[in-house]
Amino acid sequence: MATVTIYDQDKKQVGERELADDVFNTEVKEYLLHDMVRYQLAARRQGTAAVKNRSAVAGGSKKPYRQKGTGNARQGTVRAPHFVGGGAAFGPSPRSYAFKLNRKVKKAALCSALSARFQDDKLTVLNALSLEKISTKSFSQVVKQLELDSALVVIDQADPVIERSARNLRNVKVLRADGVNVYDILKYPNLVLTEAAVNQLEGALEK
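^ that's the sequence the OP posted. Answer follows.
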């Protein structure tokens, strides 16, 4: 099994632990990462773009002029697309961009993302992470102690002090273990996990 060093938040080594190979040291499959990022970004799209078609444009229910004798082409309504102010032809309408991805694919993609960070030596595991009070400055100092410029920090459960202390830091994001996702892991070059978060991830993802 893969082994990782455990640090405290001052980056002093406090021990080692083994990681589940199925979760943190599996084969990195880039096509799964690609599919999962597409899935996440597609689900985020609002899909609210819309224009009025000829049935939605106001007015124009009356024939604009008689059928014959004017020298013009026959017309039935000024709501047709070729009239100024008429309805749009083949314009966008509200839709969902989301698509289905199998649960096994999602799980395998997450394991690939975690494994990529471990294999690139971009994974840091802390025995615990805590602050006495909400303080952006204090949390920033913790990040500097870990010698990281940009990182995704994963904790095991809700911690308002940690989450609110980190929210104003541009290059740092804090997530709970149950919200870990491929897009955020790949977005931030470093991944920081508490030991409790590692246990939670292994429990959810290990085969």
